[in-house]
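We modelled the chain as a single entity of 281 amino acids. Its sequence is:
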Amino acid sequence: MELQGWHGSLNLEYGLRQDATVVLSGKNKAPLKVQRPFYPEGNEVCHSVILHTAGGVVGGDRLSIDLHLRPQTHALITTAAASKIYRSKGLLARQKIKIKVEEGACLEWLPQPLILFEAANYRQDLIVELAPGSSWLGWEIIRFGRTAREERFLEGKWRSHTEFWRENRPLWIDRQRLDGGEKMLESPLGLAGCSIAGSLVWIGQPATAPIVEKTRSLWEATSGASPRDGQLQAGVTRLPEGILCRYRGNSIADVRNWFMAVWHQLRLSFLGKPSCRPRVW
């Protein structure tokens, strides 16, 4: 009989102390943990690294993350390693993330890639509440199956529910569902023969037409490919208060290079500062 798994949690609150963004309070329950903050950009931006000490997620695991950024704070949060979702015997593994970003604050959510093993059963929920004048930049990169072992996602389920709100008004609602199997893997409405999907979203201010065109051109500059090159696809969409990038292909390096170039551009355009790679990358 399969055990019910871990029920881990992490709660972090960021605030200002002598003009520096610091972690005012933090609570955690294994297997989630956060490293001591560091400041490669100076005191204004607090870099935090989340650890999953169990090494991977199994069926029955429940993970909960609550983040709160007080006014005028700026945090960059990443993970120490790729997240692994192991094969399940049917039990659902689930992660819920709730984030509140107060006025004038900015959160950059930049986790390492997520790897879904064949027969994984996983659902992730992300709810972000943005106050007026606040902003968010985040990405997600998912590999379906351990392709280095020639494993394909022929069994399993993946669900993703994402919601962004400002003053009780929806800014962006995204629902995704993929069921393992040949039909999903090969369909143009699924992975179209690819193994990797990625999304990057900036929400805070409207993106101008030149910023959208620059973001598209960065794809060709970093990958050497056109936005639609055989099975590989990349796209950029304007949101009412931001910009959305999508990727479908077979290269973690390609999507990371593109997302990092877009991240650098958006930081310069909207935050007035260059990107700064976390030291764990």
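As a brief sanity check on the tokenised model: The radius of gyration is 18 Å. The mean pLDDT is 93.
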